[in-house]
Amino acid sequence: LKRCEYLTEAEVKVLCNRAREILVEESNIQRIEAPVTIAGDIHGQFYDLLELLKVGGPPPETRYLFMGDFVDRGFYSVETFLLLLAMKVRWPDQVTLIRGNHESRQITQVYGFYDECVRKYGTVNVWRYCTEVFDYLSLGALIDGKVFCVHGGLSPSINTLDEIRAIDRKQEVPHDGAMCDLMWSDPEEVDGWAWSPRGAGYLFGEEIVKRFNHANGLELIARAHQLVMEGYKLMFHDSLVTVWSAPNYCYRCGNVAAVLGLDANLQKKFTVFNAAPQDGRNVPSKRLAPEYFL
Question: Model pTM?
Fold first, then answer.
């Protein structure tokens, strides 16, 4: 996998089944102990994932939390997701994967993962095995009871972490409601709640974050979901942070990426990194259709 080579279809099935056996035992909000390194969106940029593991340190020496959007848009969604799954199976207590809005059957049929699976394997089976795993991924994580990690953001339907724990997560991402909002919402300089231009989830402002953090005894919300040219962005008096981990997003955006390290005292350290050097990459045999990059 680290050589960016395919597993056989039979090997993918075994790996996905083993991953589901581990994930089914995890809570909707998985508890994690610091120190931990938090990563945002990867989007199938396999060689940049290797770069992330280089700057963040290899597992199991480094404990990792990946906040979703492992697939779509990049050239290597299959290899990226399977490497992350293999890490999860090999070191289940050191690697945590939570679900993003792209860990969805509907979204992956539009933005590249489905077509990549069919192109590389000739059937839809590998896509089916992987999307079944998506349904078992946790919706969030809680670090030392103080840092709540989620892919997108908050929901007007949710006031407490216990309400998230009560969701039946083993399903396709709904079009609306609490589970949808957790994966689609974004922080913004607005009063209260506002409609999201994404067409799913909501925009939420500083007062919403302040109330949620106070009600749940939190110091920080960490999330991904939005491209940040500088790799990370602190908002609302440092009560929320966006972490973005796909450098030069879509191989054209020119952004840097970052991971957030929390030490044993939950002190923050951001590590910014660039895209992997071009000479270290294989060029895919056939480029994805251009519409995935529009």
Answer: 0.94
